[in-house]
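ok here's Retinol binding protein 5:
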Amino acid sequence: MPPNLTGYYCFVSQKNMDNYLRALDINMVLRKVVCLLKPDKEIIHVGDHMIIRTITSLRDYVMDFDLGVQFEEDLGPVDGRKCQTTVSWEGDQLVCEQLGEKRNRGWRHWLEGDQLHLRMTAEDEVCFQVFQKVK
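and the structure:
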């Protein structure tokens, strides 16, 4: 049975965000701003329904979805694109596949103790973030 990810998580660290954003064609100024942000995550996980809020001082981004059901995701606040997104479990990892203009786009969340790990991919770039559960 997959873990329940419900909780509030504070930013701890990230690696390779600038190159990941470059792969998404984000302009240099916005890349620099995003790399300075320290986002928090709030996850509500009830059965096969999830809400994932990424909270920053610049803007928040909310994903509200049912596991295993493809939906159109509006990534306008991120890079101006829309994609067909499916989120499902692969073992203990929550895996998101985002089909659209960019090859190999998506992410994975998993827990290691009280830390939430996030691996984001776009084209050939990989970015990692770590968050600490606080409630």
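+1. The beta strands are 7-15, 40-46, 49-55, 61-66, 71-75, 81-90, 93-99, 106-112, 115-122, 125-133.
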